[in-house]
Amino acid sequence: MGNKDNTGRIAPYHNAAGGWGALKYVALNLYRERVSAGNLNTLLSQNQPDGFDCPGCAWPDRAHTSTFEFCENGVKAVAAEATSKRVRPDFFARHTVTELMAQTDYELEQHGRLTAPMVYDHASDTYQPIAWDDAFGLIASHLHALDDPNQAAFYTSGRASNEAAFLYQLFVRMYGTNNFPDCSNMCHEATSRGLPHTVGIGKGTVTLDDFELADAILIFGQNPATNHPRMMGELRECSRRGAAIVSINPLKERGLERFQDPQSPGEMLLNSATRISSMFVQPRLGGDFALIKAVAKRVVELDDEALAAGRCRILDTEFIASHTVGFHAFARDLRSESWHVLLEESGVERDQIERLTRVYVNSERVIACWGMGLTQHQNSVATIQMLSNLMMMRGNIGRPGAGLCPVRGHSNVQGDRTVGIDERPPAQLLDRLEQVFGFTPPRAHGLDVVATIEAMIAGRVKVFVGLGGNFASATPDTPLTWQGLRQCALTVHVATKLNRSHLVHGRDALILPTLGRTEVDLQQGVAQGVTVEDSMSMVHISFGINQPASPALLSEVAIVARMAHATLGDGQVDWLARAANYALIRDDIEQVFDDFHDYNARVAKPGGFHLKVASRLREWVTDSQKAQFIVNAVNRDTPIHRARARHGERLLTMMTTRSHDQYNTTIYGLDDRYRGVFGLRRVVFIHRDDLGMLGMRAGDRVDITSVWDDGVERRADGFLLVEYDIPRGCVAAYYPETNPLVPLASVAVGAGTPTSKSIPVLLHPSQGDHHA
Ligand SMILES: Nc1nc2c(c(=O)[nH]1)N[C@H]1C(S)=C(S)[C@@H](COP(=O)(O)OP(=O)(O)OC[C@H]3O[C@@H](n4cnc5c(=O)[nH]c(N)nc54)[C@H](O)[C@@H]3O)O[C@H]1N2
Ligand SMILES: Nc1nc2c(c(=O)[nH]1)N[C@H]1C(S)=C(S)[C@@H](COP(=O)(O)OP(=O)(O)OC[C@H]3O[C@@H](n4cnc5c(=O)[nH]c(N)nc54)[C@H](O)[C@@H]3O)O[C@H]1N2
Ligand SMILES: [Mo]
């Protein structure tokens, strides 16, 4: 992945997030992508009632019913799709795959939109054009040649629409497997697996309206100024009306301090800004479980005191009595928990815990938001359940202005799971598929992302199909993953842009270019809309408006339908009829999922509709029919603890995170404005005293190795040290460059998520010359 970016500049950022800086970068991106005048209009149709859903993030928007909402990183996502640059067959003729492998992810992205289906040719080491029918024929022949359908795996990235995802899961289950590795396995899986045990549903319980009523908003492990910029507008309003906003994050994210709203003429002209966080708590990486447990312990103690003094109770005793089970065991566990352990493991001082507890108990209505900072650790499931416990103690679930708010990433990652992309499908879903479509779906659970890679390496998975995404770069343990992909008999990628996964290929390989969400999707002369579900369970329809990047592109729905048709024929399902009219797929979805009743009629209304979330209504779909308090102990024997016992304080915990100029593995530019990094990506953020401890200085270059017990050397070389406000013992760097350091076997208990925010690492003075 090259080290060509090590020539940048480090300059701390002192302004508010957003503001003129955001506008400047928007202009820069539109220029870089050479977005044509016609396509510029696209930006005004983003998230409009009759426009398209922003392919950026899953944060909901009021604009689907009202006015244009401006978002710097939304513009970048749209510009990346609306670019006038093209990768045509002659580009592939001019560059061998080996040559392209030498380019960075940034360079690959810059070539523009894919225009024609391509097949890999061994003799020339190039991709060559192939007719669509021949491409589908090749897929079908590979799938037919397998001894067992479980030798194929079907990946989904969270941009796929409900229609594409539903058809895909139907095809794959009819073919005979539940192997659905999914980007969410690396993302909010701990939320989706953890919450059902406590509140019954693995989704958030709030809507945007709740933000107008909340007295406090706790933001755990999330960087909205970069990853969900539209959330900043909401936080700005909350802050202005006096709500407390607490950021719980090891990194002192500048973007969470102050925000200048590019949509507020007043703020822009006066160059003023709104303070966002009223309090900043910096736990050590992975310390949130202990921190939340400590706050819960204080809540019980304060309630004991209130009870003894005859004051108003701190616990919501009514909610606990009528809606929950397990409180007594939970409270007993909290009372016996050691303060020493909680302080040491959280890395947070006692008086900070006290202040955080006071904010929590003094607020009538609290919303807890969280992102990847909670989900990508070994103890993620337990952490999210502890947060749910804490919220339940004061009845902060299923009440106006209060609730759980997991903030999802990809714009339709939540919808994809809703409509059946699930390697562990509930029996109820399979029963319904069986009834409606008259086939026997496979019952055995399938492979998630990490298990798919393991199975490829072991030769048990031989065909890989990716509906979007960039599997080779997004996944952990890069050299091992690449070995697995290269051992495959066939790799297929449905994509809009060239990426690493197309170059790290199987014996046979296909690149199938597709329409983006911003583009008109005409089927038999009729424009088709696709539906998506945002992070707050709002479902709405999206219509593209730009001309397709190439006349040869097929929609994702069409690609899935024709792949299914070529493989299974049309005996049971008329695939091609569905590709010709997506409303038929929505009718199918309605038949399988009761909550989608009157689907076509309800998405036709501006703003769409809210999918029922039972926990929001205080209906608990758990075994006990109640919300369940869950006891979990602090784990003091994690890989990090064991590595530290071996290496002492030189052992650091590393998080991998996003810069301001990237969308996951897509690198738009080389700046991370709010963190003060310009023109480079290979950096490690580190505490000043850790620099001293290591005998190093800011500006030194280091090589990084990770510590794991399987004898494999994992390394990433040539990183610049940047002094930063981050707890001692913790460091941060960008993904995907650091993915070679994440051991494949290091996953969240109960969710299988790679622990990409707690990697045990050692830093070494750099050996090589990493300048280009
Ligand atoms: N522009 C842009 N938008 C995006 C994306 C993008 O790449 N670019 N990606 C999309 C996707 S798929 C997702 S999932 C989301 C990701 O959005 P986020 O959830 O914001 O993901 P990250 O950037 O990985 O950073 C998470 C934050 O968690 C903090 N953190 C790390 N470890 C810990 C910890 O142990 N405890 C706590 N409390 N905090 C911690 C980091 O300092 C960082 O501020 O954004 C989506 N939106
Ligand atoms: N170390 C580390 N690893 C991580 C993370 C981390 O924080 N740290 N985060 C994880 C998370 S949260 C996630 S969600 C995953 C992301 O994993 P993925 O979803 O697999 O990766 P992306 O980079 O979002 O995929 C980008 C590619 O999608 C294709 N694409 C874009 N738009 C479309 C479209 O409309 N249709 C189709 N078919 N293709 C399209 C383009 O070709 C582009 O190159 O990465 C995970 N990996
Ligand atoms: Mo994600």
TrEMBL record:
> Has UniProt tagged this entry with the keyword Hydrolase?
no
Specify the Molybdopterin oxidoreductase domain's residue ranges. Answer: 113-412
Q: Name one GO molecular function term.
A: molybdopterin cofactor binding
Which cofactor names does the annotation list?
A: [4Fe-4S] cluster; Mo-bis(molybdopterin guanine dinucleotide)
Tell me, which GO biological process terms does this entry list? cellular respiration
Q: Which residues form the Molybdopterin dinucleotide-binding domain?
A: 652-751
Recorded hits in InterPro entries, A to Z, give:
Asp_de-COase-like_dom_sf (IPR009010), MopB_CT_YdeP (IPR037951), MoPterin_dinucl-bd_dom (IPR006657), Mopterin_OxRdtase (IPR006656), Mopterin_OxRdtse_a_bac (IPR010046), Prok_molybdopt-oxidoreductase (IPR050123), YdeP_MopB (IPR041953)
Record-level GO cellular component terms: membrane; oxidoreductase complex
The keyword Transport is assigned to this record: no
Concerning Pfam families, the annotation shows:
Molybdopterin, Molydop_binding
Which UniProt keywords are listed? 4Fe-4S, Iron, Iron-sulfur, Metal-binding, Molybdenum, Oxidoreductase
- Of which family is this protein a member? Belongs to the prokaryotic molybdopterin-containing oxidoreductase family.
NCBIfam families linked to this entry: Fdhalpha-like
What name goes with this protein? FdhF/YdeP family oxidoreductase
